[in-house]
Design brief:
The structure is a homodimer. Chain A has 24 helices and 22 strands. By secondary structure, chain A is α+β, with helices and mostly antiparallel strands.
């Protein structure tokens, strides 16, 4: 047994040495590892190009792919703009957009992109502002003050947008200076059928056949921006096992989670979340099946639930893989053995909050927190509005820094936008949600728990009474109550307001309990561990993703499914036609008309989508996949099912990043969309 | 508070006095109540007609509707026959069947129908065979022996099929003598689009538009049977509030459940079952979405899951209605107060098993029993086969009466039919089911519970290994192992057999625990309560449904939904066209071609489906709905959503039985299907 365990540990170590894990900072790129493994030296010029040619979109990543400001990103990253630019006559999201000349390129007034120009380590300046005698609150205040000063000075000096970013859970603070592109115009987007071919059923799946791409252009002074730092376009198709890079803005990872915490996620948090999601998916699907109008009303929420469910089942599958858990155990063991040998640090051990106790507290408060404060028991929009109104009235009476965070001055605008939104709310959907929430909560907390406020009625009776009785569907009524403050709340006879008032003490109590016994101690524990790790290993390891710019390396590589199926590194265009045919052309597998027409002209053997081992996560959508010559070989748009555990654990056994192939993009531009002018511009 | 409670009790009592609850035996019909409420006397002749004209189908009910053996039932009751009679060229289930002449009526060799001719109370004979000194097992044996003798004597004397049925949980035993019709021929069935218009989304819903009907004919000596006892056909449409009756074979109710047990169902059993069903519905739906072939492979199981989920959510909604629970509490209070006033019975009180303790035992054993013995952890068909083979080998070594019940001689034929069935098993579906089962079980019992046999693999890895490794897909291999007995099991290297062997001791242990601490004590407790009730109230109350023939009365009546919508007592034919149009004619709401063609001829204002307050449950499908003249006014085919709690609690506030309207049937026969010969025969 012991010999087996040792062999396993060595194997895992070897595996993690060779695995291409890492979302590296441009300030600390993995030069050494890449030279050792691939004999490739990342030069400073090469790094500068990748850094300055990569753009931060509000919800993802893009990149310059010509010297004239041409920008490549995903169709699904462009979709918010496509929706905003649509008119009643022309739905750009469905139909696509094709600027046949530069003059036709369509301004996107609400879009701003950022390109990182330079960075600076300001850890000492930030940390020295915090004195040992300060309370937690004072420390936080001092930190915020010094960061605000650094940002202002840098902006004044450079005219760039300057932000201090927190890395390593507070182990480091870096000053980032971004160039902002505020005049961005839409150049090309395919129709949605091509942009998200396969829809939800194919989301997170591979093999895949999807032209999830779009092009924009940055303008300066009314002309295409000169962008000397840009990616080229690969002259030859990328090869199997070829070294490839991804630069982009991965959003959030939890790689710092310790094994105990991962087990808690696996055994407590994820099962509970999945239970809710499976239930909602069924309830919403059944509602949608009843009529076409129902389908329309619930579509966005149902899509969101399906996506969340898929992500969570993927994470759960990863955490249930003993090999992955073993990998985390080994990492953890290495850290603690190193820690124990450090006499100075070892003395600090007692200052680490007890993780087991924190997780026990979490377990104790989890259901009540989810049902009452997070609103699983009262998931109707009108209840959420009622709660916002009630809290707004009481919170505004307090000094700014004593309010719940979402009611502090800096967040009030966004809160009011949501509160006074004219977005339609449907009575039947409200009743459906509330009945389901009350029933779910009844099952877990017990049908007679007074916290539910069922008032001796069944969930459907109570839900109907509340929704039929409330006047909060009307924005005017919301404004009247918001302006009336506490008096308006106290005088209100609106049943939803009264429910929110009755539930609020319970909700605030459990929120306080969660924040003080779970959330804050957990943050402190991870900050402490990060600090120790940083002292022991310096920046030889990469920090968790935080939407800051990162670089990852990997190779183009197929894999083997558990059932023995060999999955190829790339698909070809013909596969899209085959997939549509095998689904009898039923949406979301219906062949776009433009492609069906172009079939005779297309090279059906042209690569279309491909997979690589690069370490990515949500936020990397739209990232360029590029080769040693900084030439685009693909466009990241998804990860496969097995990659879903990668917010907590990286693995390259089956986990893959999924890209649109550069050759497929050019083929489609030229032969399907008559956009040769863009194909010509790429790589020039 | 007390005054309120008393008022409530009186209200409920009044309600239950007026409510039309009851599935009455023909030996004890509700003559008095019907005279008092409706001034209608059920004559003995009237009762005899209803009794002898009602038929037991293997899965429901039918009735004679002419003197020439014409039988009416549901399309969904006929569907097994339609499937069996289909050929590759003609799928009768999809296309329907229309015998234009008597000669074309199609024999159904596997169909046998039973009509109850007479009954006799044999309670004393059966009970007197059991002596006080007998053990439980001896008592059971003695009871079985005397029942077998009574049945044999009766069959010998009459030539009829004779069965002793258990009523009132063993409070009474009746001898039923049935006439058997063994030559039954198919006369008419509409196409499935009409027979189950609205499909799963409309199942248990109302308003409704469904021609869920079919006709057969009984033959004797090669000629249409003479059936003097038959229902007529209403000359006029039934009126709102009109008194109507249902005769039929309701399958199973649990009206005897005490409030404590209902709460346990509500808070423990149903939530757990629903958690499983919500999960399976999502997992199967996602699989189905991936391809047309997947959809075909999983369709039946997915439909079954959806149906179960709908039934369970309906039951749960009923149990979460405080008014319904209050009704059960009042009934329970009345029983116990009466009981306490009976000195002789009150002394027996201590002999009642402690229900609270039983339910606590159930709670303790529930998860393990469901996962390990009921197979929620290993839901693959090949695992079920492996378990059958393993148990068969060991059980056959034991004397017959010591075996697990399903392995006793009388059940071996049906067990082997299942074990050696050539029905296709799909590898990918097997992996899907097993992975999901192992994951679900991991979440509840913990990912490292050895009972799972995960063998340091993830659920998907282990599921794949088991399914890829087993040879039990081949019926020949199953036969080889079954013939080889224990030796073949012990020598087998089949991973599924090895898993079944490893799991079996756990499974047997938890089954034994469930049977001895939950199932058997619960049965004894309810038998005891039923016995006391019978001693106190005699047969003034009706026994729980047991597939025996019952009569219920009620009225045609619309209702009001919780949201205030008034639901009409009947729909009209035009509504079907409207519903199809509003769904853009997408299945299962697509208008049958035959109806679309006939639209010009049809009277679109003709009543189509209707609702009444009759107390029915599964098994009543195909029952005639008839008036005071014993004339058919409708054909029972469903209950609405609110009726789903009626296995445990009857209510007539919103709960309704749903029928095809007699007028709609005739209109369709004449104008859509050119079956005037049958329309003419009805009611003659």
């Amino acid at each position: 047994m012991i010999r087996f365990a040792i062999a396993f540990v060595l194997l895992s170590l070897a595996n993690s040495l060779f695995a291409e894990e890492g979302m590296f900072l441009f300030s600390n790129p993995p030069k050494k590892a890449v030279v050792e493994k691939y004999g490739f030296e990342m030069s400073d010029g090469w790094l500068e190009t990748a850094q300055k040619a990569t753009l931060r979109f509000p919800n993802g990543t893009g990149s310059f792919v010509s010297g004239n400001g041409l920008i490549m990103t995903n169709h699904h990253i462009a979709s918010a703009q496509l929706q905003a630019l649509s008119t009643e006559e022309n739905d750009l999201l469905s139909n696509g957009f094709y600027a046949k000349t530069e003059a036709e390129e369509l301004p996107c007034p609400s879009l701003e992109l950022l390109a990182l120009q330079s960075y600076e380590d300001v850890s000492e300046k930030v940390k020295s502002a915090v004195k040992p005698e300060m309370s937690l609150e004072e420390a936080e205040k001092a930190r915020r003050a010094v960061i605000a000063r650094i940002e202002k000075e840098a902006t004044d000096a450079t005219g760039l947008q300057c932000n201090v970013v927190t890395l390593y859970q507070g182990g480091q603070y870096h000053l980032y200076r971004y160039k902002k592109y505020a005049d961005v115009r839409l150049v090309f987007a395919p129709e949605q059928q091509a942009g998200s071919f396969g829809g939800d059923p194919d989301n997170f799946e591979y093999p895949r056949y999807c032209l999830d791409c779009a092009f924009f252009r940055a303008y300066e002074d009314g002309k295409p921006a000169a962008t000397p730092h840009h990616f080229g376009w690969a002259k030859e198709n990328v090869k199997n096992d070829e070294l490839v890079f991804v630069s982009g803005h991965p959003g959030r990872t939890n790689r710092a989670y310790v094994p105990l915490h991962l087990k808690f996620q696996r055994d407590v948090v994820l099962p509970r979340t999945l239970q809710k999601l499976y239930r909602l998916e069924t309830v919403y699907s059944v509602y949608a099946e009843r009529s076409e109008e129902n389908k329309r009303r619930i579509k966005n929420e149902l899509d969101y639930i399906k996506n969340s469910r898929k992500v969570r089942t993927g994470q759960q599958a990863g955490l249930l893989d003993p090999a992955l858990m073993m990998q985390k155990n080994v990492e953890d063991d290495i850290f603690w053995s190193t820690f124990q040998r450090d006499e100075r640090l070892f003395k600090e051990r007692a200052t680490l909050p007890n993780l087991n106790e924190i997780l026990q507290s979490w377990m104790g408060v989890l259901n009540l927190y989810q049902f009452v404060e997070q609103g699983d028991a009262f998931p109707a929009r009108t209840f959420q509005i009622a709660r916002m109104l009630v809290r707004l009235a009481y919170e505004l009476e307090k000094p700014n820094d004593q309010r719940l965070s979402e009611y502090q001055d800096s967040n009030l605008d966004s809160l009011k936008r949501s509160l006074f939104s004219e977005a339609p709310i449907y009575e039947d959907v409200e009743i459906l949600k509330l009945e389901n929430g009350l029933t779910f909560c009844s099952e877990v907390l017990g049908a007679t728990d007074p916290i539910l406020g069922l008032d001796a009625k069944s969930p459907i009776q109570r839900a109907t009474e509340l929704v039929k009785g409330t006047r909060l569907f009307a924005v005017e009524e919301r404004k009247r109550i918001a302006e009336g403050g506490i008096k308006a709340i106290e005088e209100s006879s609106d049943p939803m307001i009264k429910l929110a008032v009755a539930a609020d003490p319970h909700a605030r109590k459990v929120r306080k309990q969660f924040e003080t016994t779970v959330d804050e101690p957990l943050k402190q524990a991870y900050a402490k561990i990060a600090d120790w790790k940083f002292q022991l290993f310096g920046d030889t390891f990469y920090p968790d993703a935080t939407f800051t710019l990162r670089l990852s390396y990997g190779t183009v590589k197929g894999y083997t499914e558990d059932d023995g199926t060999a999955v190829p590194p790339w698909t070809v265009i013909d596969g899209m036609f085959e997939r549509a045919a095998s689904h009898k052309n039923v949406p979301p597998f219906d062949m776009p008309e433009s492609w069906a027409k172009a079939k005779g002209k297309l090279d059906l053997t042209m690569p279309f989508n491909l997979v690589s081992t690069n370490d990515i996560i949500g936020g990397n959508s739209g990232s360029p996949l590029f080769n040693k010559n900084a030439e685009v070989v693909g466009l990241i748009f998804d990860g496969n099912l097995q990659s879903l555990s990668s917010d907590m654990i990286y693995t390259d056994v089956q986990s893959r990043a999924v890209s649109v192939h550069a050759a497929g993009i050019v083929e489609a531009l030229r032969k399907v969309y008559d956009m040769g002018r863009i194909a010509d511009e790429l790589g020039n």
